[in-house]
Amino acid sequence: MCESIYAAIGRWRLLEVTAFFALALLSLAPAPASADDGHRLRVMIQNLYAGSFFQEFTAARTPSEIIAAATLTYQHILATRPAERAVVIADEIAKLRPDFVSLHQAAILRTGTAPPATTVTFDLLQSLLGELAAKGAPYEAVAVRPGLDAEAPTALGFNVRLALRDVLIVRGDLLEEGYVKLSNLQIRQYIAASTDTEGYSSIDVTWRDASSGW
To answer: pTM of the full predicted structure?
Structure first.
């Protein structure tokens, strides 16, 4: 268990340096008038931050060190106040209203007494989407690429499971009003080991010009 968790964390940190979330844009026409900002496509990249750099895990070598690392990491993640951070990020997105947002480290933290842990402590993606909807700026997730999904016991009497995802979200009004067509979604996963994957996501986007059609 110690070796598999350490390997998963190590590969994920390398992946964060080298991976990208690809947005393939084909047949681009001017953005609709309701998209603001001079009819230009606007894409935002936002790291949601899982809440830890996992240094305790990368230093751990024994089962007892893994338990101590999982306990500290869990406490550190909660100390970063994920729900409050989601509110601040939602405020920024709602103010800028980018057409697409590429989200990194869209974490789900779960706990449980036996693997796999299923009780959700927080889900950064759902928290963010909920905050955006409450602000009158709904977005929809159109591509989700799973990444690290690791679980370890803690000294608190339960296991902690952290799953990371890269997610592409799009303005809900663009979809609802038919200004944008999405097609050819591709999620490519390259299996690096049984505990981790690497890969990318891409999607083709076609805009409808409000005056001349597609």
So the answer is: 0.79
